[in-house]
Amino acid sequence: MKDFSKLEQALDLKFKNQDLLKQSVVHRSYLNEHPDFELNHNERLEFLGDAVLEIIVTETLFHDFMDTPEGDLTNWRASLVNYKMLASIADEIGLEKYLYLSKGESKDKNSKARQIILANAMEAVIGAIYLDAGLKPAKKFVKTFILSKLDNILKNQLYLDPKSKFQEKAQELFGITPHYKVLSESGPDHCKNFEVGLYLDSELVATGKGTSKQEAQVDAAAKGLKNKNW
Fold this sequence. Notes:
Layout (H helix, E strand, L loop, with lengths): L3 H8 L6 H6 L4 H6 L9 H22 L5 H12 L1 H10 L10 H5 L4 H22 L1 H11 L4 H6 L6 H13 L4 E8 L6 E8 L2 E8 L2 H13 L5
Antiparallel strand pairs: 1-2, 2-3
């Protein structure tokens, strides 16, 4: 039996309707194995929470950074609301142990798929907060747990993706624009894995892997940034 009062403590909230909080962590896969479960899955709450999160972050950035161009604000917002950030917030509040998952999904820990499930649940929690208590508590939660990460994002330029960062460094240090080349592909069409090489001219700087070419390129760029020759 999951004790949602402890999750409420982590969120610093007391729900009038605790079923909303409980529903926010119900993954669709759980209902496939438990069709008689008393609540629906969390996808509608996720849909709502995504919109609530976006407007709160957008409005805050708009008012707090009056002289910042919209292109920069867009990048900052993306860094605050992407699945990796939301999954890390979910870890911070211990959300994973409250998830209702199928047996198969329960085994798939420490994967990208689990991160996405956590991020979606985090959005659903925000939707649940909004429905239960309104915009003000939702805004307080987002500012406390998510917008508080902005200083670190700006300080370390985390709003720049690894490919952009690597390109900036390569052009600054060597006057060279990096390029990427697919080294290998494996797996069936619906589940491909790619290995990509990152090059400066003909020199291989790093290799990366991913389930798409873009993901493999980002992985290679991230590894390239750790190269001791920088």
